[in-house]
Amino acid sequence: QISRLMIHFCNQQHEILVAVRNLFRLDLSRIVVLLVCFPGLRAVFRMLFRFAPSHKLIKFVLGHLKSVIQQRRNQKEDPVLVDALHLLLEASEGDRKGPALLNDDEIIWNAYVFLLAGYETTSTALSYVCHCLSLHPDVQERIFEELKSLERPLKYEDMAELRYLELVILESMRLYPPVPL
């Protein structure tokens, strides 16, 4: 889901991927949590950090998120897999009226928090999946066969069909949780 929000690229040198990597080299997590919890602080943040290198990176990533959100809103068909961004967009539309609805700014910052929260845990989880697969070549072979059965290049939407791969990922996360319990 995290990569679906942002990192939907094969080119590892794509400018958004480079910006995200550089962002994660900085320790901005506490600042971001404050900005999400207290939206009024955003104006103060903009003034204080206008000239900091992190400001340009954050502005670039938030701008990209804004364009991804706009693209998602313009999609007419329902998604095959419902992800976090879909749920955020659903919370901003629909039948509900009143202050509980999310505005675009709140959607963008929440998507940014999902990105921050999922970046490290996703890489840790994938490392453990690879470790488990290296210990069980038979499982690795079965996943390979499942992937071959698609008979086309893999897309995000195909994940709904890859039941065995999903079970392997869930089992490795059960054995090796990416976040301490």
Explain how this protein is built.
The chain is mainly alpha-helical. The chain has one domain. 66% of the residues lie in helices and 0% in strands. It has nine helices and no strands. The chain is globular and about 55 Å long. It starts with a helix and ends in a 6-residue tail after the last helix. Residues 1-9 have low confidence and may be disordered. Belongs to the cytochrome P450 family. It is found in: Endoplasmic reticulum membrane; Microsome membrane. GO terms for molecular function: heme binding; iron ion binding; monooxygenase activity; oxidoreductase activity, acting on paired donors, with incorporation or reduction of molecular oxygen.
Strand content: under 5%
Cα end-to-end separation = 21 Å
Q: What is the CA-atom radius of gyration, in angstroms? A: 19 Å
Class by helix and strand content?
A: mainly alpha
What is the string of helix and strand elements? HHHHHHHHH
Q: Work out the number of β strands.
A: 0
Largest sheet: none
Count of individual helical segments: 9
**Poorly predicted parts:** 1-9
User: How many distinct domains?
Assistant: 1
> What is the 3D form?
globular
Arithmetic mean pLDDT: 78
Helix amount: 55-70%
